[in-house]
Specification:
By secondary structure, the chain is mainly β. It folds into 2 domains: about 1-50, no CATH class; about 55-104, no CATH class. Helix content is about 10%, strand content about 35%. The strands form 2 sheets. The chain has a 4-stranded antiparallel sheet with strand order 5-4-6-7, covered by helices on one side. A 3-stranded antiparallel sheet has the order 1-2-3, with no helix packed on it. A hairpin with a 5-residue loop joins β1 and β2 (about 25-30). The longest helix has 7 residues, at about 65-70. The chain is elongated, with a radius of gyration of 19 Å.
């Protein structure tokens, strides 16, 4: 007897990044069409999977890793206002910051 099964499509997922009570970066993953949610530690794989949920930039230049941001904070950037921005859930959020020199 042959049994044909319909293809089961993966459920679309939404991610919400947050910090837990211990200050650790976490993500709550919800599955569209289901009441189930899953909370995980944030990892590079999670960041890549939910790339559409976040985006970061400094003065219009993309920032994907902390190293990218540090490269932009060279000597001439100290004391000069820059715009840091993120895109979360499709909405841009921007703040103006003034980098200062690191204390020795």
């Amino acid at each position: 007897m042959d049994i044909d099964l319909d293809i089961v499509r993966p459920m679309h997922q939404n991610g919400r990044f947050f910090k837990d009570e211990f200050g650790r970066d976490q993500i709550e993953i919800s599955f569209v069409g289901s009441k189930d949610t899953l909370i995980k530690d944030v990892s590079p794989q999670i960041m890549a999977q939910f790339r559409s949920e976040w985006d970061a930039y400094c003065d219009g230049r993309p920032v994907e890793r902390m190293d990218d941001l540090l490269r932009l904070m060279v000597g001439d950037a100290v004391g000069v206002a820059v715009t840091l921005g993120i895109v979360r859930a499709g909405r841009p959020i921007e703040i103006a910051v003034v980098p200062a020199e690191l204390a020795a």
